[in-house]
Amino acid sequence: MELRSHDFILHSTIPNLKTLIPIFRASTTLLRRRITVACVRASAEKETPATALEQPGGKMVAELVGAFNQLTERMNYNVLSTSSSRILFKALKISIPILQTLPLSPDGRSPLSKALTVAVLLADLQMDAEVIAAGILREVWEAGAISLHEVRDRIGTGTAHLLHESLRVKKAPFGAELLDDDNAAAIRRFCLTYYDIRAVVLDLVLRLDMMRHLDYLPRYQQKIICLEVMKIHAPLAHAVGTYFLSLELEDLSFRYLFPSSYLYVDTWLKRYEKGSKDLIELCRDHLLESLTMDPLLQTIVDNISVKGRYKSRYSTMKKLLKDGRKPEEVNDVMGLRVVLKPKPDVDMTEVGDKACYRAREIVLSLWKEMPNRTKDYIAKPKANGYRSLHMAVDVSDDGHAVPLMEVQIRTTEMDMLASGGTASHSLYKSGLTGPEEAKRLKAIMVAAAELAALRLKDLPSVYHNSEIHQKDRVFFLLDKNGDGRISIEELMEVMEELGAQREDAQEMMQLLDSNSDGSLSSDEFESFQKQVDLMRNIDDRDEQYKIMLEEKLPIADESGLIQIYRKELSNGVAVS
């Protein structure tokens, strides 16, 4: 056979293939390494949104987006207009970079944390955007970093007005030396009559925030502040309908003014625990399960809500000392409220009444009713229209005496009327005025709220006729020209307002722009928002765990180990 030259060359090399295998393997390994390096470099040019959180400008935007979402998620979606969103967004853009540069507050908190805590409280109270913006800007303004004229020009007249009003409320004569009962009542009446009621609520929230962090002050100063709060601010909070503010202000004042008495009451209320669940939670779960499983209620009710509460420490102390009752005779220390939503029917009132009486039968099948403690305000409503069933039941099951449980049963309509129709009653009950003047002050409060609502109605915009999802609000606020995308110029503008560099905007755009078209779609920006929410939720959960562990593990803190760890942790996570 005739061999061609290339056949000979191939044949002649075959015996030497064994010597070439190691070389081939080495070449393959080198090639794989080069491919891996190239992939890493390519991925570095297109990082995940999480990396944007570590970029300097990205941290600023993340703080802005996270704070805005945290507040708007707490506000009533139906009244969160486009104009309201803009006011909040502008206030945060102005405040965040300034607050991050201010020194720590005397209580050891960062000014940004303090401002956002106040804003969240106001959002939970369903205050409007102007009040929340004023709460955010208050720290900035008091630091001299912004003037009222700048607030008016950059955010709006309403927010500037509230800041000015809050300063007037702050300067009101609340000195403890003036606080006999008559003077205190006169000051409360003055506050409701001559100040914007929203500025009064802002001042109450600021007072509550201060009361939660009094430990750094000398003992005598704590007592002076608490006397003012007990005489002026707690009744005032009740008067304007912010009941949870009133209760917490009373309890905090009670704790600082009478620490020994507070300890007795607090310890007594905390005794009612079974395992890891307290008594109210156990009773609540038991009652809710029984109501939900009832065949009759299933046919006439759409939804069942059962909420539990302990009477406040201060109110409990008054019942025990002022009324001279024994502990087991205080029948509203613990309470459950059942709210039933009837199915749509020709006569919903009749169906609602039937559901309430059926719920009462179920309650009586679970616990023993106390005689002479039942009040039927459905059959015989109060003069102001209040309707509900009230009863006191014995929930003890192990032979130990526990306070009676007060149970209230009502429909959703009855509950709304009870909540919305109490303003005049609360003004009168707080010892502010007589009944007629209480009605006049209520009219002033309603007028102020209506005026704010009119001012904050939606203005015409490109998004006015479309439904805006909660998570899209930040996107639309950044998309100023309304083309459905965030351009590099729009991103640069907001980052410069936050104090970041233009290069940060370019880097952030590169990290988030997954399809490399030079702009951000709503989906691309939403992936960034999800990372922001995740990080903030983890931080919030860590704070909750810390508080729980401080209560359950006091010995570790006394040994000094916690303080050492905190120091090491803060050094380790300090942002450079």
TrEMBL record:
Family, per entry: Belongs to the RelA/SpoT family.
Domain EF-hand: 466-501, 503-535
Name of this protein: GTP diphosphokinase
InterPro entries for this protein: EF-hand-dom_pair (IPR011992), EF_Hand_1_Ca_BS (IPR018247), EF_hand_dom (IPR002048), HD_domain (IPR006674), NT_sf (IPR043519), RelA_SpoT (IPR007685)
Keywords assigned by UniProt, alphabetized: Calcium, Coiled coil, GTP-binding, Nucleotide-binding, Stress response
Domain of life: Eukaryota
Enzyme Commission identifier(s): 2.7.6.5
Sections of the chain in a coiled coil: 488-515
Domain HD: 111-211
Taxon lineage: Eukaryota, Viridiplantae, Streptophyta, Embryophyta, Tracheophyta
GO molecular function: calcium ion binding; GTP binding; GTP diphosphokinase activity
Gene: LOC110722046
Signal peptide extent: none
Keyword Calcium: yes
GO biological process: guanosine tetraphosphate metabolic process
